[in-house]
Amino acid sequence: MIILGIDPGTTHCGFAVIRDGVCITHGRISGVGSHARHRRIRVIGTGLRGVVERYAPDVVAMEMPFVNAKRLNNAIPMGEARGVATLVTDPLVVFDYSPSEVKQAATGKGNAKKDDVRRGVSRLFGLDIDTVTEDGADALAVAWLHWTKIRLAKKETA
């Protein structure tokens, strides 16, 4: 099974493709050069569409945004980023995971820091940490989480 992991964002969008628990590719799509939000979202959508076309994933695992009272103004832009990611991956089924679930899967701690997640996925996939961006690490972690859930479900039904 090919899983596309996505860490949606309005400036950068992390992506990762894994097949049977092995990393095929990972990285981030950056919309920084297009300063207006709608242009950044378009760049990110186009980049994700390219990943979908190239790797033909079976499912999508996406990290849900963390929005608290201090960052409430980020809720709408994050919704736009998730919306474009969902649109360009249609008709694939999207599985949503909370940030704490994603961190737990990569590090064993639901409150892990960004660098801990980078170290965790680097270890899990045998990657050089210097090649893994924070956004790519989150995408790898969410893909890994989904893959482990699939494996567990298969074991329980066997």
Arithmetic mean of pLDDT: 92
CATH superfamily: Ribonuclease H-like superfamily/Ribonuclease H
What would you call the shape?
A: globular
Number of strands: 5
Low-confidence stretches are none
Report helical residue fraction. 40-55%
Report the radius of gyration as a whole number of Å. Answer: 15 Å
Q: Please, what is the oligomeric state?
A: single chain
Report the biggest beta sheet as strand number plus sense, adding barrel if it closes: 5 strands, mixed
Account of the protein in words:
Helices cover about 50% and strands about 20% of the residues. With about 160 residues, the protein is an alpha/beta fold. The chain has one domain: Ribonuclease H-like superfamily/Ribonuclease H (Nucleotidyltransferase, domain 5). It has a 5-stranded mixed sheet, with helices on both faces. Helix 1 runs parallel beside helix 2 and helix 4 packs across helix 5. The mean pLDDT is about 90.
